[in-house]
Specification:
InterPro entries: Aromatic_CoA_ox/epox, Ferritin-like, Ferritin-like_SF, PaaA, PaaA_PaaC. The protein is mainly α. 67% of the residues lie in helices and 2% in strands. A hairpin with an 8-residue loop joins strand 1 and strand 2. Helix 7 runs antiparallel to helix 8. The N and C termini lie far apart (45 Å). It binds Phenylacetyl coenzyme A.
Length: 315
């Protein structure tokens, strides 16, 4: 890759041109996208598990319908994203094997357990809320197939967030026991949601290059701050307490527009979870391994069918 080639490519990025699958691109650009889109796809698929846990136990038929639709959407998001990554020359099989071997990451957030129904509220409100904050700018990502996939994904995430917040409203404005459940879920999901945005910018190894290539449009810390500023008034409306004693309005923040100061993030916990030591890491990968093994005959049958159809057409 000559310096001229890299400079020409950067000019295309700077002109806000979309990069398409067959366009020449630096190997690092391709590699970064395969890594990020692959990780994102795995997160959607593994992300079906914590909520899938509650589909059979949703408290009403209406709640069950909404949760079922949400979890199905997540499966759909995973499929779009695997397809977007496949346009870069990597196969779904390869990506899945990397997930199962631990080589590819998925979001830390899905390694926390979901012991109560209020967790369905907190996940929709906070986890999908954080996902939207991160994914809206990805609709303007320089890689065309990823950017276009994100448009539909974000519309669906918005329904997911409302679905969760509405559960939180019912619980938080319900009986004292229900309110307590909602508070307990907020206590457990707040910090992991804040961690979803990734390490501080100073420790984010990929950010500078990804920002220059306009894969990322905002840094991890910028998005985290936006999320916190948007979410605190929602917690106040619920009448719940965000579990951060250092949370404080700071009128000087965000170039004088104001924003919240917040407490120190437990990065030891974050890296422990990312490296496989969270409460649910083993369960999650075991479940994905079982699904992959159980689905082998379906993949084989689909391939055999496709081969037969091709042979029929050729004869
Ligand atoms: N968990 O240099 P950076 C959803 C890794 S939303 C695990 O800052 P980057 C919807 C990172 O990979 C969740 N690992 O990395 C849903 C890197 O390691 P590597 C998924 C993390 O890529 C809701 C290292 O740390 N969303 O699924 C995490 O520039 C509800 C250094 O970090 C996306 O994937 C983490 N939280 O920025 C589904 C969005 N954070 O790869 C079901 C697309 C960082 O060099 C229910 N991804 N790491 O070995 C992104 O925007 C970026 O990849 C970031 C990380 C912002 C996540």
């Amino acid at each position: 890759e000559t310096p001229e080639f890299l400079a020409e490519f950067q000019k295309r990025i700077d002109r806000e041109e979309k990069i398409e699958p067959n366009d020449p691109m630096p190997s690092g650009y391709r590699k970064t996208l395969v890594r990020q889109i692959g990780q994102h796809a795995h997160s959607e698929i593994v992300g079906m598990l914590p909520e899938g846990n509650w589909i059979t136990r949703a408290p009403t038929l209406r709640r069950k319908i909404a949760l079922l639709a949400k979890v199905q959407d997540e499966g759909g998001h995973g499929l779009y994203l695997y397809s977007a990554a496949e346009t870069l020359g990597v196969s779904r099989k390869q990506m899945t094997e990397e997930l199962l071997s631990g080589k590819a990451k998925y979001s830390s957030i899905f390694n926390y357990p979901t012991p109560t129904w209020a967790d369905m509220g907190a996940i929709g409100w906070l986890v999908d809320g954080a996902a939207i904050m991160n994914q809206i700018p990805l609709c303007r990502c320089s890689y065309g197939p990823y950017a276009r996939a994100m448009v539909r994904v974000c519309k669906e995430e918005s329904f997911h967030q409302r679905q969760g917040y509405e559960i939180m409203i019912s619980l938080a404005h319900g009986s004292p026991e229900q309110k307590e459940m909602a508070q307990d879920a907020l206590n457990r999901w707040w910090w992991p949601s804040i961690m979803m945005f990734g390490p501080h910018d100073s420790d984010s190894t990929n950010s500078d290059q990804s920002m220059a290539w306009k894969i990322k449009r905002f840094s991890n810390d910028e998005l985290r701050q936006k999320f916190i500023d948007a979410t605190i008034p929602q917690a106040e409306y619920l009448g719940l307490t965000v579990p951060d004693p250092d949370l404080k309005w700071n009128p000087e923040k965000n170039d004088g527009k104001g924003g919240y100061d917040f407490g120190a993030i437990d990065w030891d916990e974050f890296w422990t979870v990312v490296k496989g030591g969270g409460k649910m890491n083993v369960d999650r990968i075991t479940a994905r391994q079982k699904a992959w093994d159980d689905g082998e005959w379906v993949r084989d049958a689909a391939l055999a069918h496709a081969k037969k159809q091709t042979a029929k057409k050729a004869s």
